[in-house]
Design brief:
Layout (H helix, E strand, L loop, with lengths): L8 H13 L9 H7 L3 E5 L6 E6 L2 E7 L5 H18 L5 E4 L1 H5 L6 H14 L2 H8 L6 H11 L3 H11 L5 E6 L2 E7 L20 H8 L9 E5 H4 L11 E9 L4 E7 L2
Parallel strand pairs: 1-3
Antiparallel strand pairs: 2-3, 2-4, 5-6, 5-9, 7-8, 8-9
Helix pairs in contact: 1-5, 3-5, 7-8
This protein binds zinc ion.
The site of zinc ion has 7 residues, from α3, β4 and α5.
Length: about 260
């Protein structure tokens, strides 16, 4: 199996907890039960400006998830994130409060937030099961949609997992309010990008078109043809441009996009 099996510390903790719960894949299992099984309290109630929190005192922890979260996938991720804090950090800090922005800014939050997200990602999408779902499929937006449904996670979470554990090299760029914020790429990605922090996405990119003209592609148009040099630098002189593809996921409520870029 061509999976990269170097697991981070938080991924290892997630795998150990899954094993102790006797779960290979928790997709059909409610997070509330899993959390109670780990001896923490779980409740859902309206929270203001927060997706979830965990309060630990005298060996007892209460995980609260915002009951106003509309999508089950988001609720599950928030719960798995708090479970990550419970398993790894409850003795370090009595309270973790998480806004949606914290959960999205995987690579800008502090080390505890990154760890909780890595935990949640491996907990909800165990590497082997994830890779199995990718195997034999030609990469495109439909694969991401399939993975999100299959593992009951958001498309954003599925994309981030795919970068690390998918079966096709991809490059992703996160943009907010028409500014590039961060990028990630698969281990076997081989081009240098034109990324510049806080600059608008480059001309010719789907992300640029999205923020400047509000054009949103759907269904069969989700996969857009672009050019390699829209996003990347030539590696040598006289290198010829070639066709690349971009799938730009737009999350309107937070005005952010994630562009997934790949070559066939
Ligand atoms: Zn957190």
């Amino acid at each position: 199996m061509a999976v990269n099996l170097n697991f981070s510390k938080s991924e290892q903790v997630a795998r150990k907890v899954l094993e102790e719960c006797g779960l290979d894949d928790p997709a059909d299992y409610p997070m509330s039960k899993i959390i109670m099984g780990r001896k923490a309290f779980y409740e859902e109630k309206p929270l203001i400006g927060k997706e979830g929190e965990i309060v630990s005192l005298d060996n007892r922890s209460i995980i609260t998830i915002n009951s106003n979260i509309e999508f089950e996938a988001k609720k599950r991720f928030a719960a798995a994130h708090e479970l990550g804090h419970y398993e790894m950090h409850r003795t370090l800090k009595p309270i973790f409060s998480d806004t949606e922005a914290d959960m999205l800014n995987w690579y800008q939050g502090g080390p505890h937030e990154i760890e909780a997200n890595e935990f949640a990602s491996e907990f909800l999408m165990p590497t082997e099961a994830f890779y199995k779902e990718c195997e034999g499929k030609k990469f495109g937006p439909k694969v991401i949609e399939h993975l999100a449904k299959r593992f009951k996670v958001s498309k954003t979470a599925a994309i981030l997992k795919f970068v690390k554990r998918g079966n096709h090299p991809v490059f992703i760029v996160y943009c907010k309010d028409n500014k590039m914020k961060w990028f990630k790429y698969s281990e076997d990605w081989q081009y240098f990008s034109l990324f510049q922090k806080d600059q608008p996405p480059p001309d010719g990119s789907v992300a640029n078109e999205l923020f400047t003209t509000k054009k949103i592609y759907v269904n069969d148009e989700l996969e857009q043809q672009i050019w390699k040099f829209d996003w990347f630098k030539p590696k040598y002189r006289d290198e010829e441009d070639s066709r690349f593809y971009e799938y730009c996921l737009f999350v309107k409520s937070y005005n952010y996009s994630i562009s997934v870029i790949w070559e066939k």
